[in-house]
User: Which sequence fits this backbone?
């Protein structure tokens, strides 16, 4: 993976994390941003962990924590069952 691709992924992860952390944002949009973070798998773990610590919503906190757990367990979070 080239450096520019890593940089773009890092920027995307930061933008999605920022969307989640906006306290007055729309809950649905914030949930979708958490879901989108899982596309980056292990690279998204630091952002998801920060969301768990900082987010104001119990629903968002639980969603991010569940994804952290699933990614750590090696579960593919992006397949539809």
Assistant:
């Amino acid at each position: 993976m080239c450096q520019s691709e890593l940089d773009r992924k890092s920027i995307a992860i930061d933008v999605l994390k920022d969307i989640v952390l906006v306290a007055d944002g729309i809950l649905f949009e914030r949930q979708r941003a958490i879901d989108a973070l899982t596309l980056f798998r292990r690279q998204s773990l630091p952002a998801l962990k920060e969301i768990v610590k900082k987010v104001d919503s119990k629903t968002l906190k639980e969603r991010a924590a569940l994804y952290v757990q699933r990614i750590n367990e090696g579960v593919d979070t992006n397949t539809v069952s």
